[in-house]
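Limitations
The structure tokens in this dataset are predictions for the assembled complex, not deposited experimental models. Users should treat interface geometry with appropriate caution, especially where small molecules or nucleic acid strands are included. An illustrative entry is reproduced here so readers can see what is and is not provided.
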Amino acid sequence: MQALKGKMVIGQSGGPTAVINQSLVGAVLAARGQENITGILGARHGIQGIMDENFIDLTTQSAEQLEQVAGTPAAALGSVRLKPGKEECERVFEVFKKQGVRYFFYIGGNDSAETAHIIAEMAIEANYDFRTVHIPKTIDNDLRVTDHCPGFASAARFVALAFMGDDRDNRALSGIKINVVMGRHAGFLTAASALARQNEGDGPHLIYLPERVFDVASFKQDVRDAVAKYGRCVVAASEGIADADGNPIASTGERDSHGNIQLSGTGALGDCLSAHVKDAFSGEKVRVRADTFGYLQRSYPTIISEIDAGEARRVGEFAVNHAVTGTENGSVAIRRLSSDPYESECFITPLSTVAREATEMKGEYINEAGNDVTQAWIDYVAPLVGDLPKMGNL
Amino acid sequence: MQALKGKMVIGQSGGPTAVINQSLVGAVLAARGQENITGILGARHGIQGIMDENFIDLTTQSAEQLEQVAGTPAAALGSVRLKPGKEECERVFEVFKKQGVRYFFYIGGNDSAETAHIIAEMAIEANYDFRTVHIPKTIDNDLRVTDHCPGFASAARFVALAFMGDDRDNRALSGIKINVVMGRHAGFLTAASALARQNEGDGPHLIYLPERVFDVASFKQDVRDAVAKYGRCVVAASEGIADADGNPIASTGERDSHGNIQLSGTGALGDCLSAHVKDAFSGEKVRVRADTFGYLQRSYPTIISEIDAGEARRVGEFAVNHAVTGTENGSVAIRRLSSDPYESECFITPLSTVAREATEMKGEYINEAGNDVTQAWIDYVAPLVGDLPKMGNL
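Predicted assembly:
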């Protein structure tokens, strides 16, 4: 099969990350070296920008400008949460044909992989010769097949550093501190809080993940036990924790355009857990505070994991090189070759293996009581996040 | 007057900062060079540790260990919120006499300066020859006399970086984003969000400070106007904003041991402002999210302002050197000599000029509409926070 010749479109989709622009720049710079790619169009706000023919020409920016973009958090092209139906896909092909587009790269999570998959399937139906590669990103780390997802490790680094500092703060003015971390169905990011522990007694002392049923009575007892042991307690709770019936512990009831209940951008869960703790200590004077880390986890500049930035760049480059030289659509995945020293490589997996369904934390990463992580989890996540500063003690 | 000879006690008090341990280490290392200081006692949890004779001997730690402590956020000795009465002060003198303490250094804000002041007054009454120096710290930047307070610039840097990233996130997935920043009576920290602006259209688009009455109707109109202009809106709101009668816009009603209403450690204000915005757009589909930055602002590691760290160290050293060579009690203050290049020096001001009452933002720093800051504010704050990364654009 002869390599396709034509323009490429690249878009960013879903919740941004601190390194999603590394993938964009990696793909763009790789494309500039491919003679079969005759033009590079950046779609503003993902699939929406394609339908609106709202493109940025990415063939001419200086490397210096692109490097500045690569180092900037959040989707420089703009993002979108839109699952296209038949009608939207037809419009996409109309635009692709009109513009002579033969390559499509979509940077996103499992919803975005599904979009790429739908478009790829429709291209076959429409007999449109076309190559699409999904470029993975998500702070949730919940894509199937890949060892981990670009974007996760930088968010995990933000969370680990936040808990390191907050644990010192809680130690200075003792009390019960609850920190709510992003993660709807997967607890990876919440579990990264465990990296904050450097010495016996360091928090977080309890970690609650959406992979396990959250039982209010057990939670209250856990906190009382931790306070009895440490004189204080720092809790990491995933925003997605739910009861035995699968109902979120706190929710505003709002839904986003993918039909997901809104969990982020509100302090409801933290305040709800605070109320439970106050109830557990009813009559006793305790200082209870809750913070919800919110969007800073995915957008905070300057705390990027170097490995994450490098891999995010690499998956973008790999996608373009594969699209031109390979013969199949797919999604880029990461295989870990070694944890010490850390080494990885990219490979291609079929879109269907990544699209739609997400994954969650392995059982071996969660302790039996369901309120902490295991050493296996630390061994997995620590190399991705990189060296953390050493906290001093008197 | 002959220099006093005896031990020193040093304590940390009030809300910790990211550089309060620099002041501790600065004071300890300076004291080690003073032959009139015969021993260095660190009081655990401030004045409480003195009453309990709960001390850490700070004469023997290695410089390496102390430097690691200096780089660690939050009070390494532990902190406290306690305003001592006559009885507590008598106990403090009992301990000081017993231990041969002639120097007392208290690192804290205006409440801590008041504690130092009360103890200093009681020493005169008790005819106890004794020197006390207050070492300033507060992320609120609300101490009188000094140009600014150690601890503020690092918290301001956290806030500026947070808004830089969050504004990119909001640009990628447009909507209305409200970020609640610490600051009960003074808006300095909230106002630092303005440093996130690098180009026309960058957020925050609206800044609400406790120095101005918060009017819900004006807020709704401001947000609508910003959305009309930018297609989105990022809001910085101080946790202390209050209505014309001085009532906080949202409050749990809880009070801390200084009698202050609890504002931090809850998402109540963010959720309340979100509800007002949704109301302002009733019937229209808008994406509204609120984050409360919470305790991360004062404890996050790795984002320290270099000038802040240096000055926090310097006020600690200066306090000790003044106590030994000077003849009066007092509080260390900072005088700005130049903004470009930035230069400052320390001086001593009487405890009474810093104790009890705090200050707030000058009128010239706030715009006429009361929903933004002025260039004069930027000129004041930018040199303290230091260089910020440049965000890339396509």
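Some entries come with short summary sentences. For this one: The CA atoms of residues 65 and 308 of chain A lie 21 Å apart.
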